[in-house]
């Protein structure tokens, strides 16, 4: 899954195609309308040219950040759906879909972020938290496929309520969660592959440590064993 098509990010589908990988192509939306238009135009072209693109995600938590209105987002979704042949959705925190059920009429699938760390949920309860939110979304939108577009846990950073960001809790949580989601047949993306130190400026110290690999590309833990 990508988050934008600007710069080198727009080259990812071509690179993925060379390795037989599939791409959920992200369009970054924000308050700059001209930038939104540029993202949409390039994403439509890439989606129609690259067979590696299997879906397009129009916006990442843009409603949650209040950088677009629901009406603007729906208009963007409708435009992209009319212009590409693959499924189209928008990625939002799980509760945003509950607060804006009208979105379901303008997407081909529900793409929801469920991140219990940010909701101060202790790791012992975190897997159940995700499963409960997933079941709620399936019940609310029974005719739409569900993609848990971000699930994950940080390995370092500040404590948030009862949620601790430690290597042990990250390993415990992701092992348990992936087993549970696989067992119930859910589709999901783990956030994220690699630690990204630059995210400290946007998310605080914890933002740099969501990867299952560290910044030196070393695995933090084994998913099995």
UniProtKB/TrEMBL annotation:
One of its GO terms (biological process) is polysaccharide catabolic process. The keyword Cell membrane applies. GO terms for molecular function: hydrolase activity, hydrolyzing O-glycosyl compounds. Keywords: Carbohydrate metabolism, Cell membrane, Cell wall, Cell wall biogenesis/degradation, Glycoprotein, Hydrolase, Membrane, Polysaccharide degradation, Secreted, Signal. PANTHER family: GLUCAN 1,3-BETA-GLUCOSIDASE, GLUCAN ENDO-1,3-BETA-GLUCOSIDASE BTGC. Glucanases play a role in cell expansion during growth, in cell-cell fusion during mating, and in spore release during sporulation. This enzyme may be involved in beta-glucan degradation. Active on laminarin and lichenan. This is Endo-1,3-beta-glucanase btgC.
């Amino acid at each position: 899954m990508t988050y934008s098509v600007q710069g080198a990010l727009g080259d990812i589908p071509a690179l993925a195609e060379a390795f037989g990988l599939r791409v959920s192509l992200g369009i970054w939306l924000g308050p700059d309308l001209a930038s939104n238009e540029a993202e949409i135009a390039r994403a439509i072209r890439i989606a129609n040219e690259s067979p590696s693109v299997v879906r397009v995600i129009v916006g990442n938590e843009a409603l949650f950040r209040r950088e677009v209105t629901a009406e603007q987002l729906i208009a963007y979704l409708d435009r992209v759906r009319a212009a590409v042949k693959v499924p189209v959705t928008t990625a939002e925190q799980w509760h945003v879909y509950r607060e804006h059920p009208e979105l379901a009429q303008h997407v081909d699938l529900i793409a929801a972020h469920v991140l219990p760390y940010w909701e101060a949920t202790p790791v012992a309860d975190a897997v159940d938290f995700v499963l409960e939110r997933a079941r709620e979304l399936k019940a609310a939108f029974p005719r739409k496929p569900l993609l848990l577009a971000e699930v994950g846990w940080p390995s370092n950073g500040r404590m948030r309520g009862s949620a601790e960001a430690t290597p042990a809790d990250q390993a415990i949580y992701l092992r348990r969660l992936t087993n549970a989601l696989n067992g119930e047949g859910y589709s999901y993306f783990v956030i994220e592959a690699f630690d990204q130190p630059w995210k400290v400026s946007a998310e605080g110290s914890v933002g740099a440590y969501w990867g299952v690999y560290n910044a030196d590309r070393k695995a933090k833990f084994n998913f099995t064993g």
